[in-house]
Design goal:
Blueprint lengths: L9 H17 L4 E4 L2 H8 L16 E4 L5 E4 L15 E2 L5 H15 L3 E4 L4 H10 L4 E4 L1 H9 L3 H23 L7 H14 L11 E3 L15 E10 L2 E10 L9 H18 L4 E2 H11 L9 E5 L1 E7 L4 H6 L1 E2 L4 E10 L3 E12 L2 E4 L10
Parallel strand pairs: 1-5, 3-4, 5-6
Antiparallel strand pairs: 1-2, 2-3, 7-8, 8-9, 10-13, 11-12, 11-14, 14-15, 15-16
Length: 371
Amino acid sequence: MAAETLPDPEPLRVARRDRLRAAMDKHELDLLVLGRVANIRYASGVPVLWNAGTRPFGPGCVIARATDDVYVLSTWDEGVPKEIPHDHLFGITWNPMNYVEVVKTIAAELKPRRVGTDANSPLFAQLLPMALEGAEIVDGGPALRDARRIKVADEVDAIRRAVAVAERGLEKVIAEIEPGATERSLTGAFMDAMASEGVTTPATQDVVRVMMPSRHPDGVLAAGDLVRIDGGVVVDGYSGDVGRTWRVGSAGDYSGATELFRRGDDLRARLLEACRPGGRGGDLLEAYRLAGEAAPTRPVAYGLGLGFDDPVITPDLPLTAGAEPLDPGVVIAVSAVVADGHVGAVASRDVVQITETGPEVLTTSPFWNPA
C-alpha cells in the first residue's frame, strides 16, 4: 500500500505563511494568485505532484491577506493541512472560464484593490481582469522573493536533510570510482543510494561526468581521469546540491592535477570566507578575481529552498548579482571551478548558511582525494 501523502509539518507551514503575510503587507497585495509549484507549496504546505518539464500558468493557489484564507487547486483532501477547509479546494478543469469563476467567487467579498501573480500567460492576462474587476494586477515576484530568500529554522533543517542524502549518494559514487567504471554506472550508484533513503527525485539526471570527455567519448573511466560529481536531490520539496571532483587511479597517473586541486581548494576557501552577513554577491565574484581564476559562465552561487531560490549570483549579471545582499538566513549553493586546458577542470559545490556570526558550511564531504 502506498504511503499517505502528508502536508508539510505545521510549524514549517506557520513560519512560512507568517513571512508571506509580512511580504504581502510590505508590497500592499490583497491577494496572491500563484501558479508555480514551489510557491504553491510554500504558501499552502501541500506537497504538489512533482513532474519534469514546464507547465502553463493557471491559478493553483490563492492567498487572501485580510482573512489569511488559502485556496488550493486540488481534487482531494490528501496532503491538505487542517487549516485549509474542504470548501477552499477547487478542482481541475479544462475550461479556463471555470477558473475565472473560482477567483471571482474568492474575490467577491474581499474586493481586492491590488493583486499579485507569480507568472502569467497571454490567456490569463485577458481572463484575470474579468475575475478581478477594478483590481490592479501586478507582479507578485518581489513579495515572494522577500518571503522566500530568508529561510526559517525548519527550512534550514529540511535543507540539511537533503544535503545529507546527497552526500550519502556521493559517498556511494566515490566508493565505486575506478578504471573501467562508466558515467552511467556511477550515476546509477548515486540513484540507488538516493532511493535507499526513500528519495526519488534527483536535482539533475547528469550526476557524473568525465572532465575530459574527448578522451573517452563512451564515458568509460581510465586512470588519470578527473570525474565531476553533481549530487543534487530534492527531499520533501527542499533541494540539497553537493558537487565534488575525484580522480581515478593513483597519484602517479596524473600530470598537473595536484596543482589544479590546490588552486580549487584555495578558491573554495576564499568563496566560503566571503559568505559573511552584511556582504554582497560581488564579494563572491571578487573571490574569483583575488584567486586569479576566471569566473564560470554558470552561477557562482544560487539560493536553495523549495527549488531554485534567490539570490542568484552570476558573472553574466555583474551589477545585479554584485548588489545581492548576503543576509543572515540566506542559504546558498556556492561553486568553485578552476580549469586547465591540458588537465581538465576541478569543481566543487558547497551548501552554506549565512548566520549572524558568519558562514556555516552544511556540506561535510571531503573536497578531493589527496595523493
